[in-house]
Structure to design on (300 residues):
């Protein structure tokens, strides 16, 4: 087992590029690329799709990354436990989190985090605006979707699946939907965000279809989009964690179940520092270790 190659893969995914991972690890980009190629050859599986614009994990790569990232976190935890600086963590963490993520996920995690670290305080702002943690004096922000901030460090926390949904009433009065191309005949409830693509992407058996249905209603709040879809205004592409109950009770219906939409990554972004403050380090470790255990079964 090549632990160094596994660490390189984790850093590539967390940083979002071969170049950034190479810089963090003190290697050349060519060395990082060669080590991943050797790892893929040894495993007999492709782990990453690489293009000029983006880096995507294959299904095998996603499974391998999840296990390796947990191992890397365990090693980091072991070092932390043995560190001579094991003293009470104190201070205030200043955070900004998208509204829906804070309501659904981060709120409950912060509550349990503060119980585990009674010497800490958290100042949390829920907002969907674009936040610059450096100019606003924040320790970290949560970002939904792919990130490109070169002046920020990033730690991938989870990812969430999406569901294409509509109300039974809307479906009863509109044309049938059997393939992604049918969606252009429909109205959608659009979620306006600086972090998410405006179009919808669907994939099945290696075939990718991009569609951009018309929208009479655009909103920057995903919960509001869900409620508009429930009221029959149009189609909505929603995080699975936000529409689980509605799908179960029948107020929303899932469409095109065989077609996959790209998972949406969830990152923690923070100013690049040579030595990370310990209060932020323990917060990151807590999120990684405890997120899936708080009933968030569709976060990875």
């Amino acid at each position: 087992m090549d632990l160094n190659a596994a660490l390189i893969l984790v850093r590539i995914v967390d940083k979002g590029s071969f170049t950034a991972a190479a810089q963090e690890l003190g290697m050349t980009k060519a060395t990082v690329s060669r080590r991943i190629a050797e790892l893929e050859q040894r495993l007999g599986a492709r782990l990453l799709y690489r293009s000029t614009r983006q880096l995507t994990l294959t299904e095998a790569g996603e499974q391998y990354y999840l296990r390796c990232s947990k191992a890397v976190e365990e090693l980091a935890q072991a070092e932390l436990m043995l560190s001579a600086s094991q003293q009470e963590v104190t201070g205030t963490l200043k955070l900004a989190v998208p509204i829906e993520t804070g309501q659904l996920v981060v709120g409950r995690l912060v509550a349990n985090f503060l119980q585990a670290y009674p010497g800490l305080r958290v100042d949390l702002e829920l907002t969907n605006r674009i936040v610059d943690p450096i100019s606003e004096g924040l320790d970290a922000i949560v970002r939904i979707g792919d990130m490109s901030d070169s002046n920020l460090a990033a730690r991938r926390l989870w990812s969430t699946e999406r569901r294409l949904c509509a109300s039974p009433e809307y479906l009863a009065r509109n044309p049938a939907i059997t393939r992604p191309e049918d969606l252009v005949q429909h109205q959608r409830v659009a979620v306006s965000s600086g972090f998410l693509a405006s179009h919808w992407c669907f994939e099945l058996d290696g075939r990718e279809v991009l569609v951009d249905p018309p929208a009479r209603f655009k909103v920057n709040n995903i919960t509001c989009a869900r409620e508009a879809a429930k009221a029959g205004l149009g189609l909505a592409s929603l995080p699975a964690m936000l529409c689980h109950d509605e799908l179960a009770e029948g107020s929303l219906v899932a469409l095109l179940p065989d077609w996959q939409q790209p998972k949406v990554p969830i990152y923690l972004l923070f100013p690049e520092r040579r030595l990370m403050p310990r209060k932020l380090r323990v917060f990151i470790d807590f999120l990684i270790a405890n997120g899936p255990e708080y009933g968030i079964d569709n976060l990875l």
